[in-house]
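User: I'm new to structure prediction. If I give you an amino acid sequence, what do you actually give back? Let's try with this one:
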Amino acid sequence: MNPKPILLTAATGFLALGLACGKHAESPTPTLPTVAVRLVADASPAGAGWVAATLQRTDQATLSTRLAGTVKRVLVTEGSAVASGQLLMELEAGDLLGQLKAAQSGREAAQGYHRRIKALQAQGAATPSELEQAASQLAQAEAAVAAVQGQLAFAQIRAPFAGTVQRRDVQPGAFVGPGQPLLTLEGRGSLELTATLSEAEAAGLPVGRRVAFDADGRVGQAVVIALAPGGDALTHRQALRAKVLQPSDLRSGAFARIQVPAAAKASGAEVGPVRVPATALVRRGELTGVFVEEGGKALLRWISLGERDGDQVEARAGLNRTDRVIADPAGLQDGQPVRVESAPKEDARHGR
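Assistant: Good question. You get back a string of structure tokens that encode the predicted 3D arrangement of the chain. For your 352 residues, that looks like this:
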């Protein structure tokens, strides 16, 4: 068989494929049409902003023990109302009870010896140094008893104040270690709001100032009682505590929002949260972004969302205050040419 036809056929096919690829490479890329868009106008609330907060009782404690041992019994469950000093949980303490009996026996022996030496010393048959030594031995024996009794106290978990059991972390038979959370107890004291604020948000909230908040669909009033002077090393935010004045029957642990004053001016630059209307948001799967106009094109920016206030949403990350956000990005593609429509406040920046 002559191989030449096969070689020619393969070469011809390769040449045809090369020509096809060349034609494809030379075909022009479709150009996206230029569309008219409208920029976001001033979209921030007129007088104030909101920060997330949590409601909690002023007297709240997570109970633990200094011992390592097995849980013998648990006398309460979630929702149980307890009195101050009430026994809530007990650990196995057989070893400690044995140590206590031994310590008590030693104390009784030291007491008897001290009495004999004291009687002998009164008769002149014992020296003052012997009596002093007997008194020292008695003091050591009494200290040993007190030490074991102190350890036994940690085997019994009692309520430090009257309240309600919010959480039970262990069951009978579980082995627990020193410092391990066992029960969470909440008292019947007043409610507090706790939150973290940026430097700009904290600037308008000195200690003693009243603030409005909402929680569980209800509006209330609170007064700032503590504000950390420095920010966290990682978040650079300051911790705030505010005592709830009214209403007083809110649910502890509920999510809340504290109203903060309008953004302050710092070095002539505007600070505070950047907000955009919900209509400007673009969702692709689990990601959320907005289109910004830059250089005559629509560029997609992924952002991190914060609190929502009506039809406005806070952009915690991904946007600068000077970005020109497109109000209605329906149908836009990343990099598509755009033409900004003339409209009132067309060049206004969002988030002021």
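You can read the tokens as a compact description of the fold. Here is one thing that stands out. The longest strand covers residues 48-57.
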